[in-house]
Design a protein that fits this description.
The chain is mainly alpha-helical. The protein is built from two helices and no strands. The radius of gyration is 30 Å and the shape is rod-shaped.
Length: 75
């Protein structure tokens, strides 16, 4: 059983091979970049700040508020 190939299919195959090779080289170039942290570079994190050094104050205040609510309800 044989395969019949015409000139247009050969042109399409050549174009497909070129596109695949180009995509492979671009993928290799983008994978070779060092120091890329995609989570840190995410668009929604650009205007966010990291937690400050006084975040423990808020945690203490929340715990105290919960304790006071428990004391008010059960006493």
């Amino acid at each position: 059983m044989g395969v019949i190939v015409n000139k247009e299919q050969e042109k399409d195959d050549v174009l497909t091979r070129r596109i695949n090779a180009d995509l492979r080289t671009r993928a290799k170039e983008s994978a070779d970049v060092d120091g890329v942290d995609l989570v840190e570079d995410a668009e929604y994190l650009k205007n966010m700040n990291k937690t400050g050094r006084f975040a423990w104050v808020w945690i203490v205040l929340i715990v105290l508020a919960i304790l006071s609510l428990v004391l008010i309800i059960f006493l």
